[in-house]
Each structure stands twice: as structure tokens, then as C-alpha cells.
Amino acid sequence: QVQLVEFGGGLVQAGGSLRLSCAASGRTVSNYVMGWFRQAPGKERDFVAAITWFGGNTLYADSVKGRFTISRENGKSTLYLQMNSLKPADTAVYYCAAAARATVAAANRAYNYWGQGTQVTVSS
Q1: Which tens digit of pLDDT belongs to each residue from 5-22?
Q2: Of all helices (H) and strands (E), which one includes residue 78?
């Protein structure tokens, strides 16, 4: 089992930045793919970004390319999402997820473990 806990959500003005963190515990995630997803009210949960823990290969949704950066810190088993140039459309609950696979994936069903989510609100 892998436990995931997200931190760092909050309220920010449009154009601002936030950094989300996700602490992983339990089984080692060194062979996992880690991802960030988000869900706005009344909408489905959408893919944001993913990274392979071992090689650092990344994948981003088109809507966040050039603005968001996913990274991981091996020694702390922590995943990050640096979000810059935030827009009101980025407002959502952000979820951290882990997948027992070797290649990055965007599909919800590819991920085995999920955090509880953290709210990000971007005001205009």
C-alpha cells in the first residue's frame, strides 16, 4: 500500500504561483509513476502532469504546459507541482496519485493510489 498526502493548496490571485507537495509513505515509490490530477466543481477529474520516479520522464496536459512543473525529491519521497501564471480556470481540487507502472500515463484508471486532495482557488 502507498499512502499519499497533499499539501500547499490555497487562494492566490491570477498570475500568481503556488507549489503543491505530496508526501508518499508505505511501500517505496521508486518504481512508480506519480501524477497530479485536478477536479473542478461539476467536472470530471482531469490529468495535469506525471513523472516516472526513477528516470524523471514527464508528461503534461496541454493546458498547463509551460506554466506547471512536476518534480520529485527522492530522499524525502515527495512529489511537487510548481504552478506559475495561474488562471481562474486552474481552480480545482488537486490530487496526487501513484501508479505501479514504468511509463507515464494520463488516464485515471492507470493509477492505483490517490491522496485526499487539496483545494486551489485562483481569483480574477
Answers
A1: 999 999 999 999 999 999
A2: strand 78-83
Q: CA–CA separation, 90 vs 114, rounded Å?
A: 20
Q: What is the pLDDT of residues 30-44, one digit of tens each?
A: 889 999 999 999 999
**Which bin fits 66, alpha (ψ -120 to 50), beta or left (φ > 0)?**
left
Q: What is the DSSP string of 31-82?
A: TSEEEEEEE-TTS-EEEEEEEETTT--EEE-TTTTTTEEEEEEGGGTEEEEE
Interatomic CA distance for residues 4 and 21, integer angstroms = 10
**Conformation bin of residue 69: beta by default, left when phi > 0, alpha when psi is -120 to 50:** beta
Instruction: Output phi, psi for 83, to 5 deg.
Output: -115, 115
CB 61 within 8 A of CB 46: yes
